[in-house]
Specification:
CATH class of the largest domain: Alpha Beta
Order of helices and strands: HHHEHHHHEHEEEHEHEHHHH
Number of helices: 14
Distance between the termini: 54 Å
CATH topology of the largest domain: Rossmann fold
Largest sheet: 5 strands, parallel
Number of domains: 2
Bound molecules: thiamine diphosphate, magnesium ion
Helix content: 40-55%
Number of strands: 7
Structural class: alpha/beta
CATH superfamily of the largest domain: Thiamin diphosphate (ThDP)-binding fold, Pyr/PP domains
Length: about 400
């Protein structure tokens, strides 16, 4: 069998200069010296020359609460899938800081284009998590009004939403909602995607359009090291954030398990976009602690040693250590958060099981704003077919 080349060791060959990995550094390990970090895995506050900022105690407690509750949504949904209540679930375990940091940096007028794993960002946008469960239970097609929460539908087609986001960003630019200096008007768009998606043509086309038109879009890549069973080494020869340079806009690699750094970097990128300075690529360097989805078994393709080493970088634990060490929380606060998480879990379990099955005819709803003649004929034909079964619900 022809083994694929090992990207981490392949030289460029004679006459082509040094190996790319030598020039740019490895894309693996701890994230490299370029990693922006404000809170270490040990819970120690560190500073950064470019992205440092102050956080109030209330903000820090808020981040902690958001991450704990988001993790609870995730573990409940995983358990519900195991109980047969959801068809599938895409876990975010380990990616809470990346998502809460990015989500909390948004202003109400900003607009988000998610993948299928952005449960933490959905939480920050105020979307009822039961709406997410409805999609994975298969009782609707993503039944939230994107315009109400400025959070688009989950997108399964890898990378497609980066083009939607760029188009939307060009739209708000043409509406004049960029660079006015009015903090309540100027808006930015975030396109979420993964390390695997970075290999898609759509993503690269989106980068080119965004650069050419200086679109107010932040490309937020959660590099969780895996695209299902495909490791990051198969997606890129250089750290992902460095790709941005080739397209003509800045790229930053941030510790995606550090909610403070992710917030600071995303906020700066969003502000650039709102000010009319164009796109930024943020690479949130993180790790997918769970399976790709509940249908996947990662023990088939990765070492438990890796998972164990990333456990030490847990995004929630480091904030808890910092809060406790600095006397910013007491046992009462922690007990309140734990109780709130339990309540949320209960609401999700009960709410999920109580979701009614949709009528078969619901498939025809929400396809077009106005029904076409062809669709009307199909709908009526389907209704007649349904009615041919005794006692059937149409
Ligand atoms: C266009 C397209 N190709 C392939 C797939 C199958 N697929 C689903 S998830 C996935 C991996 C995506 O990895 P990544 O972008 O790193 O995101 P992650 O799942 O790690 O969050 C693939 C290949 C798909 N959904 N769409
Ligand atoms: Mg990935």
């Amino acid at each position: 069998m022809n083994a694929p080349p090992d990207a981490s060791s392949t030289a460029n060959g004679p006459g082509f200069g040094p190996d790319l990995v030598e020039v740019f550094g490895p894309s693996q390990g701890a994230g490299g010296p370029e990693l922006v970090q404000l809170l270490t895995p040990e819970g120690e506050r560190v500073h950064h020359p470019e992205f440092d900022m102050d956080f109030s105690a209330e903000q820090l407690r808020g981040f902690y609460r958001d991450m704990v509750l988001t993790r609870r949504i995730d573990t409940e949904a995983t358990a519900l899938q195991r109980h047969g209540e959801l068809g599938i679930w895409a876990q975010l375990l380990g990616q809470e800081a990346a998502q809460i940091g990015a989500g909390r940096a948004l202003r109400p007028q900003d607009y988000v284009f998610p993948t299928y794993r952005e449960h933490g960002v959905a939480w920050c946008r105020g979307l009822d998590p039961l709406k997410l469960l409805g999609l994975f239970r298969g009782v609707d097609h993503g039944g939230w009004d994107a315009a109400e929460v400025n959070f688009g539908q989950y997108t399964i087609v890898i990378g497609a939403q980066t083009l939607h986001a760029t188009g939307y960003a060009m739209g708000i630019q043409r509406d004049g909602d960029v660079g006015t200096g009015d903090a309540e008007r100027d808006a930015a768009v975030v396109a979420h995607f993964g390390d695997g998606a970075s290999s898609q043509g759509d993503v690269n086309e989106a980068f080119i359009f965004a650069a050419s038109y200086n679109a107010p879009v932040v490309f937020f890549c959660q590099n969780n090291q895996w695209a299902i069973s495909e490791p990051i080494e198969r997606q890129t020869r250089i750290p992902l954030y460095q790709r941005a340079l080739g397209f003509g806009f800045p790229g930053v690699r941030v510790d995606g398990n550090d909610v403070l750094a992710t917030y600071a970097v995303t906020q700066a990128a969003l502000q650039r976009a709102r000010d009319g300075q164009g796109p930024t690529l943020v690479e949130a360097y993180t790790y997918r602690m769970g399976a790709h989805t509940t249908t996947d078994d990662p023990t088939r393709y990765r070492l438990s040693d890796d998972v164990e080493s990333w456990k030490l970088k847990d995004p929630i634990a480091r904030v808890e250590v910092y809060l406790r060490r600095n006397g910013l929380v007491d046992d009462t606060f922690m007990a309140e958060i734990a109780a709130e998480a339990d309540d949320l879990g209960h609401t999700l379990r009960e709410g999920c099981k109580a979701m009614p099955d949709p009528l078969p005819s619901a498939i025809f709803e929400h396809v077009y704003a106005e029904e076409t003649e062809e669709l009307r004929v199909q709908r009526e034909g389907f209704a007649a077919y349904q009615a041919s079964f005794e006692g059937a619900r149409a």
